[in-house]
TrEMBL record:
Subcellular location: Cell membrane
Region (Disordered): 1-64
Main location: membrane
Source organism of this protein record: Pilimelia columellifera subsp. columellifera
Ranges of biased composition (kind: Pro residues): 14-47
UniProt-listed InterPro entries: Pra-immunoreactive, RDD
PANTHER family: MEMBRANE PROTEIN, PROLINE-RICH ANTIGEN HOMOLOG-RELATED
Name by which UniProt lists this protein: RDD domain-containing protein
Lineage: Bacteria, Bacillati, Actinomycetota, Actinomycetes, Micromonosporales
Domain RDD: 82-231
Membrane topology: Multi-pass membrane protein
The entry's keywords: Cell membrane, Membrane, Transmembrane, Transmembrane helix
Transmembrane segments: 90-123, 135-156, 196-218
């Protein structure tokens, strides 16, 4: 009778010998805030691979199609692609035009009526010098108009995106939105107000608004402006 041959590479139980695991190439996914090509690597002549990539301390990244060596895509901690500088700049220009028109429509008639009322109440100014009462009335009128100006701007920059999924009209047209930096947080009025009022304060100093807007060009990894950093927000693309 033929005896079964003994395979020295296996133990009596028939299990394969212990040894190093088969080689599996690692796929780099880039630093935090950058989405790289997950899944198995692709080589010339092979179709793109699809999969999910995770990073320590970060949420699961969305699926990505492409070849190994493709440019890395900057993403938020929630895995959403970040808005580009051009998209954010175009949205700011659109919002500036819309807000200017809104202010003109609301405040211009009030300014004309208020100035006419003050002139009718005090008549011609003798010698070009205002009396004490006239100065107080003019100052109060200016304060009221500035308050209305800031109120309209606040409503457009804070209340509108709070109710419209983080979007003003400009951001809606460019398909981008304001989002919390931390994935587990929700968008709040306080977050948007801090973001807006810091922009207002920086607008009172020369060159600070430009520094604030350009900061995103070298900020890593989330391309935030200074007001984004203060409010812990990012601007992402809308899928």
């Amino acid at each position: 009778m033929t005896q079964p041959s003994h395979d020295p590479s296996s133990d009596p139980a028939g299990n394969p010998p212990a040894g190093p695991a088969p080689f599996a190439p690692e796929v780099p996914v880039g630093p935090p805030g950058v989405l790289g090509p997950p899944g198995r690597p692709s080589f010339p002549g092979q179709p793109p691979q699809r999969g999910h990539a995770t990073q320590p301390g970060h949420a699961t990244q969305p699926a990505w199609d492409g070849y190994a060596g493709a440019p890395l895509m900057p993403v938020s901690p929630a895995g959403k692609p970040l808005a580009s500088f051009g998209e954010r700049l175009a949205a700011v220009i659109i919002d500036g035009v819309v807000l200017t028109l809104a202010i003109v429509v609301v405040l211009l008639p009030l300014t004309v009526l208020g100035a006419a009322g003050i002139g009718a109440a005090f008549g011609d100014v003798d010698g070009g010098v205002l009396s004490g009462a006239e100065v107080i009335v003019v100052v109060l009128f200016v304060l009221v108009m500035v308050t209305l100006l800031l109120g309209v701007s606040h409503a457009y920059s804070v209340e509108l995106p709070l109710r419209q999924d983080g979007q003003t009209l400009g951001k809606k047209l460019l398909r981008i939105q304001i989002a919390p930096l931390a994935p587990q947080e929700t968008r709040t009025r306080g977050m948007l107000a801090k973001r807006y009022w810091l922009q207002v304060l920086m607008g009172m100093a020369p060159f600070l608004p430009y520094l604030d807007g350009l900061w995103q060009l070298w900020d890593k990894p989330y391309q935030q402006c200074l007001h984004d950093k203060a409010a812990s927000t990012v601007v992402v693309k809308v899928s």
